């Protein structure tokens, strides 16, 4: 048991040091800020986030594409108020889902820390209608990252 607990501890410290090589954990659901031992950057967000459809019906999908300079990690949510809503399509190679605020796959993160030029996420609108906001955290690497940027709006009608 002791061995198990300390092995877990070593594992989590190692994971942290590698800056979430397999994506962000659920602990970051609220502030969308990686618990790396560095502060988020305050300068201009250097990425473009394109939303293919900003007005859609419940159950319809839109693409959300991050591009700009190369990056390794991301964490994206579409929020109603402070709550992540809707669901992202996941795939084992590129996109891992995170259960935030009670909904499985309501946040999307990287599944590995390879260098990416862009990533296209598919997000499905929830049953609940309303005005939603898209937030993105993007990490160039474990030290350099921009957290919880409001990058667009989506209306579910
Ligand atoms: C790592 O991620 C990249 C980009 O998201 C993907 O193309 C690649 O297949 C992934 N590698 C593995 C081993 O899953």
What does this protein look like?
With 157 residues, the chain is mainly beta. The protein has a single domain, classed as Immunoglobulin-like (Sandwich). Helix content is 10%, strand content 48%. The chain has one helix and eleven strands; from the N terminus they run αβββββββββββ. The protein has one helix at residues 2-17; strands at 47-51, 55-56, 61-71, 73-80, 83-84, 87-88, 95-100, 103-110, 116-124, 130-139, 145-156. The N and C termini lie far apart (52 Å). Bound molecules: 2-acetamido-2-deoxy-beta-D-glucopyranose. Residues 93-94, 112, 114, 116 line the site of 2-acetamido-2-deoxy-beta-D-glucopyranose (NAG). Keywords: Signal.
List the helices and strands and how they pair.
Elements (H helix, E strand, L loop, with lengths): L1 H16 L29 E5 L3 E2 L4 E11 L1 E8 L2 E2 L2 E2 L6 E6 L2 E8 L5 E9 L5 E10 L5 E12 L1
The site of 2-acetamido-2-deoxy-beta-D-glucopyranose has 5 residues, from loops.
* Poorly predicted residue ranges: 4-18
The radius of gyration computed from the alpha-carbon positions, rounded to a whole number of angstroms, is 16 Å
User: How many DSSP H or I helices?
Assistant: 1
Q: Which CATH architecture would you pick?
A: Sandwich
Structural class: mainly beta
Write down the CATH topology: Immunoglobulin-like
User: How many beta-strand elements?
Assistant: 11
Which CATH first-tier class would you pick?
Answer: Mainly Beta
What is the fourth-level CATH superfamily?
Reeler domain
Domain Reelin: 6-157
Signal peptide: 1-19
Protein name: Reelin domain-containing protein
Keywords: Signal
